[in-house]
């Protein structure tokens, strides 16, 4: 079951967001539309726009502006994907060739810029300054998170604290913005707004922890990306950081070398070490702790089917395989 199918009330709203997105990809430049439609149609659960819808509904919203607002969040997310794939030289996403693999880096970056700009055009139409403040701040933090990740690339001395700072910026920040702006749109109380902000933050951290975990568990058919991509790019994610901390000197040296060099020459030995040192379980435990914090935050909201769906979404975060 797809996440948006968990709540019958949300399904038609989710479909309206999809229609809105497709109707706002228009451009006088054909390549912009072609790449935009390609990446939007490429799949994905559209979890972030769903969070906008659920958060607004959980706070009693009864208007229509949550539809374009959800599209704003998805446009920003899609723009970051286009840029990330260029930075990471990725060739596969969601089981399909990346836009940069099909059309090249320059068009991918520029269409990402177009989607960012379109998102801000829509925000101006929504005309809520508080929402613009949250989203503009989020996009700044996301960019900083991406730069920090770049600085940490091929650095085996990356600490767990620095790693968490990266995923807070590059992933959790947009989750946090999605839930918070839903509350703002609904004129929620300060307590409800803060509850949803924290929910989004902790859910986003859990989501990325599981994503990084799957790089050492899954296969490309399941994940929609190549196994070992993070190692190939020299990214010291939590499974590797933990394995270096608790492993033997020999194991530590092997992982450090693999991070420094990048590539997949040592993929199988690294996979074995990550399993042997309990780093898979450790990373999953950290993700489960974040999910628990997210669900606890929801206690400030009134009981509703939307709050229940938010709870279920959080519980699904650590069970996902793609």
UniProtKB/TrEMBL annotation:
It catalyses: 5 isopentenyl diphosphate + (2E,6E)-farnesyl diphosphate = all-trans-octaprenyl diphosphate + 5 diphosphate. Supplies octaprenyl diphosphate, the precursor for the side chain of the isoprenoid quinones ubiquinone and menaquinone. The keyword Metal-binding applies. Its cofactor is Mg(2+). Keywords: Magnesium, Metal-binding, Transferase. Belongs to the FPP/GGPP synthase family. GO terms for biological process: isoprenoid biosynthetic process. It comes from Marinobacterium iners DSM 11526. Its EC number is 2.5.1.90. GO terms for molecular function: all-trans-octaprenyl-diphosphate synthase activity; metal ion binding. This is Octaprenyl diphosphate synthase. InterPro entries: Isoprenoid_synthase_dom_sf, Polyprenyl_synt, Polyprenyl_synt_CS. CDD domains: Trans_IPPS_HT. The keyword Metal-binding applies.
